[in-house]
Design brief:
- The complex is a heterodimer of chains A (about 280) and B (about 300).
- Chain A contains 12 helices and 4 strands, in the order αβαβαβααβααααααα.
- Chain A has about 280 residues and is mostly helical.
- A 4-stranded parallel β-sheet of chain A has the order 3-2-1-4, with helices on both faces.
- In chain B, the strands form 3 sheets. Chain B has a 6-stranded mixed β-sheet with strand order 5-4-3-2-1-14. In chain B, strands 6-7-8-9-12-13 form a 6-stranded mixed β-sheet, covered by helices on one side.
- In chain B, helix 6 links the parallel strand 8 and strand 9.
- Classes of the chains: A mainly alpha (about 280), B alpha/beta (about 300).
Chain lengths: ~280, ~300
């Protein structure tokens, strides 16, 4: 798929300004000064820590690296590099003891050759990291910052109540290609910019291999499908293979549940979020 | 019209009427200390914008003591502010009051309620029914609240009434970073829109946008004053609170209208005839305006 239209870009300085203001205002308005986020050694969290340091001041940001004993050593090394570059404090929390304690009670999670097991393990690690971040959030009096980008959110490529959990997310409306552009602008360390995106949930995992498509093509398609509202016919006419368009459209639909709070059975006349509707920033 | 105008590019708190009222007083103190004759606040300046069900909680009548308290400030200078108005028959309006000499001179109820994209005004508000110009001691004004300004017909009605300035209290959310332009696409759109209104209607345009975030959406400020030649003569920063004060010189209107006498050459009678004909011949109208067959 070499002749596809290009992925979306963005005006990086403008985007930086908006996102820094977003972080500052949405943290401060609830009376907080601080933020906490997980640093994976990947580009998304490296970008968020740069933005957070600018918005809140580096002293008000706690970055947390949460390796498992089988995590790739590069992940921790790059997380350290990223925290150092942003000038924020890094706390390393080894999740191996808690993960292993759970694994010990669930021997069926040992066979990592099975895809379903790998997925369960990955989700479990991701949720242990969430538990850690939310506890540190309470300790620090800091809001948990999300690091899911728009490509991941649209495709449902993330763990509910795991890496998708956060108080506020500055990059959830940026496609991966825009994350890369903004990260380059903010001079995120080269090692992170050049590293193939990976959740590092098992050895050799990469996002693009797992998703089955490269990010540039996914972003090019999603941007036109979602933001520009091009029809499938138009997308195919513009060079996107019909099966690619259909597969991604279906994946977006199937994962809508991940982008919404749980369904509530409506029985009363006013139901939370349905017809009891208030902004989250109500009163601030 | 010689007039010293102040645009109060503020950040209202969402649903905190009392705090916003106090903020209005503080802004007005600054405006009047700088000899402003007309102070303009953004859309829904007393309430915040993404109100949802707060719309009904925070609504007050124009007779409410706190509305009257603010109106009383117009003894020191004319002012325009926004809030949710509850009518006597319990409809809710997105309203801007023009107050002067301690009394309400005009209430404009927003006519065009956006109900698409991130907007939900049609769900909560009743629609205003007119574009009445305001005979202020400072000059004649037309009020267009945000989406009203996207309908040229609204500005044109004010134009026919001979307004000197269009006042646009707005709450414009920031959207569009995916071009290589250094401005949001919403900013660019409003730049074009205000220039078009100033150019076609040969009026001053006084557009006051708010700033701050609500639920992740930024309001991008950039309040601006355009002269009747469509040149931007003053512009507030994007994103921060700012008091933008500028003196309008009366001769600009005359010069613009001598140079290109659009008002003189307007043909409202012709438009009325055509409009009447169109309304009687539904097939000639865009489908959206054709009467529902069941009503025909």
């Amino acid at each position: 798929m070499t002749s596809l239209p290009p992925p979306p870009g963005c005006h990086v300085a403008l985007t930086e300004r908006v996102l820094v203001r977003f972080l500052r205002e949405e943290v401060h308005r609830i009376g907080m000064q601080r933020a906490v986020l997980g640093l994976s050694g990947g580009i998304d969290s490296a970008l968020v820590v740069e933005l957070a340091a600018r918005a809140l001041g580096p002293k008000n940001v706690l970055a947390v690296a949460m390796p498992y004993r089988q995590s790739h050593p590069d992940s921790l090394r790059l997380a350290k590099e990223s925290a150092e570059h942003a000038g924020v404090q890094l706390e390393v929390v080894d999740i191996s003891p808690m993960a292993d304690a759970y694994l010990l009670q669930n021997p069926d999670l040992e066979d990592t050759h099975q895809e379903a097991v790998r997925l369960r393990r990955g989700n479990m690690f991701s949720r242990l990291r969430m538990i850690t971040l939310y506890d540190l959030s309470a300790r620090e009096g800091g809001l948990v910052l999300g690091t899911s980008n728009k490509t991941e959110l649209m495709l449902g490529y993330g763990t509910q109540h795991g890496d998708m959990a956060s108080g506020i997310n500055p990059i959830g409306d940026l496609y991966k290609s825009q994350v890369v552009a903004l990260s380059t602008h903010l001079r995120v360390p080269q090692g992170i910019l050049q590293r193939p995106p990976s959740a590092d949930l098992w050895d050799g995992q990469t996002d693009e291999q797992e998703l089955g498509y490269c990010y540039d093509d996914l972003d090019a398609l999603l941007f036109r499908m979602i933001d520009r509202r091009h029809t499938p016919a138009r997308l195919v006419a513009d060079g996107f293979p019909a099966d690619f368009v259909a597969a991604i459209a279906e994946r977006v639909r199937r994962n809508q549940y991940k982008r919404r709070p749980p369904l509530i059975a409506k029985v009363a006349s006013r139901t939370v979020n349905l017809d009891y509707r208030y902004a989250r920033d109500w009163g601030t | 019209m010689d007039c010293r105008v102040a645009l109060c590019q503020m950040r209202p708190k969402l649903g905190v009427f009392h705090d916003n009222l106090q903020a209005h007083h503080q802004w007005l103190d600054r405006c009047f200390a700088e000899d402003a004759q007309l102070a303009i606040f953004p859309e829904l300046s007393l309430t915040g914008y993404f109100l949802r069900d707060l719309t009904q909680d925070i609504a007050v009548s124009i007779h409410h003591p706190q509305i009257q308290e603010l109106v009383a400030r117009s003894k020191d200078g004319s002012l325009v502010f926004g809030f949710v108005e509850e009518s006597d028959d319990h409809r809710f309006y997105n309203t801007a009051i023009f107050a002067e000499d301690g009394a309400i001179l005009h209430c404009h109820r927003k006519v065009h309620l956006p109900d698409y994209g991130i907007f939900e005004e049609g769900r909560y508000f009743a629609s205003g029914q007119n574009f009445q110009s305001i005979p202020s001691k400072l000059g004649r004004f037309g009020l267009l609240i945000c989406e009203d300004a996207w309908h040229l017909s609204a500005g044109w009605l004010h134009f026919l009434q001979g307004v000197d300035a269009l006042i646009m209290p707005v709450a414009s959310p920031a959207r569009g970073i995916d071009t290589d332009q250094p401005e949001l696409s919403s900013h660019q759109s409003w730049r074009t829109l205000t220039a078009a209104q100033a150019l076609f209607f040969q009026t001053w345009v006084l557009r006051c946008n708010r700033v701050g975030f609500e639920d992740g959406t930024m309001f991008w400020g950039g309040s601006s004053i355009l002269n009747p030649f469509a040149a931007t003569i003053a512009e507030a920063n994007a994103e921060e609170e700012e008091l933008l004060i500028h003196s309008l010189r009366a001769d600009a209107l005359k010069r613009a209208r001598m140079q290109t006498p659009l008002l003189r050459d307007a043909k409202p009678d012709l438009v009325r005839l055509h409009l009447a004909r169109l309304l009687q011949d539904p097939d000639a109208l865009s489908a959206a305006y054709r009467p529902n067959p069941s009503q025909a």
